[in-house]
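Entry type: protein chain
Record version: 2
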Amino acid sequence: MLIVQIPDAVRVFNLSRSAAHNLFLIGPMGVGKTTIGRQLARSLHREFIDCDREIEHRTGVRIALIFEIEGEAGFRERESQMLDQLTRRQHIVLATGGGAVIRPENRRMLSERGVVVYLRAPLALLVERTARDRQRPLLQNTDPRAKLAALLAEREPLYREIADLIVNTGHRTVRHIVNEIRIFLDACQDAHHPR
């Protein structure tokens, strides 16, 4: 296990393998996986991929329509297939969907094929960030806050299970978060390749 001393907004877990060329961002909807992922990929000179956008691109329809026609089970099957394909690539930063960790095979793929960074934020902030977003099928109900709270309760242990690094995003800048992730990656590289 590698322990890296960095600001208290970041905690380190379970990195028992050499730092991979892939970086996978997990966490609830609205936490900033896509926004942070784009900036992180740019700073690392890696390709950025958003799993949900890739599913939409390949199917030609929005995620909401997939949910409407195939239900959540159908979407999760498509998501697993896409994750399998994308996590086999090299030198990428991948933003996953919030529910990507539900299936054990997805957690295995993510943890075996790259460094997993769990981005988290307080429930109130997630509710605020997703309030006007009509493209999130799981939140299209009478009480989105309660739904988000239930999803977090279900998924938090799964996020933690595979996380090599946990980053509290809160009200912090994207640049600050990206810099802290880079400090962690640099420390991992140094630990596995001493000078």
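Comment: Residues 1-19 have pLDDT under 50 and may be disordered.
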